[in-house]
């Protein structure tokens, strides 16, 4: 009766005698390993443990038997497809009513997906930290190499202007006009850096105007012509929705400029009472979407996370040499 129940439990169950020989494996274990019961009995099941984990496992397994204590260990076990999967193996000692030790009963659960998720999160955390540091370095370079030097030159020119004879009105006026041009250029640089950090136009004028400005900037400063089409975009969207869509458009345009080799792109925004739809297309080199799923770049991960927070979805349609189309849907709550 107990063995019948063990075969119905959604976990891999094993039992071992006091001499450490395994005397039972349930149906789930045999299906997981793809081996027959006679192959697993006694010590045969240990053939499936990964060679790199064998030393640690034997030490823990044998120590638990000697001390008659429970153990819990994660190790790799060969699956039915021939690959090694991670499992969490837990064993508990069994005793008769009189205290006699009668062996161990244990269970295994597959933890491969969980470990893969943990490794992905660790990798993502490292990449996010690196991206943050790189952005800080970029802003620092712009402030130091550009604005700082221009401010120093401006100070020198002001000092030179102050040393001119009082009767040199023409030279003074020319110097002041030159200083005015430089101050306006500095103001534009500060505005550009500030806008890159947070688009104030998005707060003041709305998503459509901010997107148009973004597209125009990409067209003016890069070898890319961006066409924008808008339909029924509300002037006032929830702040998190508007910022999410703006950042997705910004990241997509940056990816097109960096990777696609396209000369033209289209940003299409359509609104309805229930949702906002965004489509971004280019006729660049394209890529294999499967590779982006297996190892997504930080930009794609960032877009997905932003959309997840506002309940949105993203799909990517792309083929090598046939361009890319990004479709985004964000519900309006």
Structure description:
The chain has 333 residues and is an alpha+beta fold. Helix content is 53%, strand content 23%. It is built from 11 helices and 10 strands. The strands form 2 sheets. A 5-stranded antiparallel sheet has the order 2-1-5-4-3, sandwiched between helices. Strands 6-7-8-10-9 form a 5-stranded mixed sheet, covered by helices on one side. A hairpin with a 3-residue loop joins strand 7 and strand 8. Helix 5 packs antiparallel against helix 6, helix 8 packs parallel to helix 9 and helix 9 packs antiparallel against helix 11. The mean pLDDT is 83.
What fold name goes in the CATH topology slot of the largest domain? Heat Shock Protein 90
**N-to-C SSE series?**
HEEHHHEEEHHHHEHEEHHEE
Largest sheet: 5 strands, antiparallel
What structural category arises from helix and sheet content?
alpha+beta
- N- and C-termini, Cα separation: 54 Å
- The backbone outline, from C-alpha atoms, is elongated
Question: What is the strand tally?
Answer: 10
What is the number of helices? 11
β-sheet strand percentage: 15-25%
Instruction: Give the name of the CATH superfamily of the largest domain.
Output: Histidine kinase-like ATPase, C-terminal domain
- In terms of per-residue confidence, which ranges show pLDDT below 50 for 5 or more consecutive residues? none
pLDDT average, as an integer? 83
- Based on the structure given, which CATH architecture of the largest domain is correct? 2-Layer Sandwich
Q: What is the gyration radius calculated from CA atoms?
A: 32 Å
Helix content: 40-55%
The tally of domains stands at 3
CATH domain class of the largest domain: Alpha Beta
> Main sheet: which strands, in order across?
2-1-5-4-3
Quaternary organization: single chain
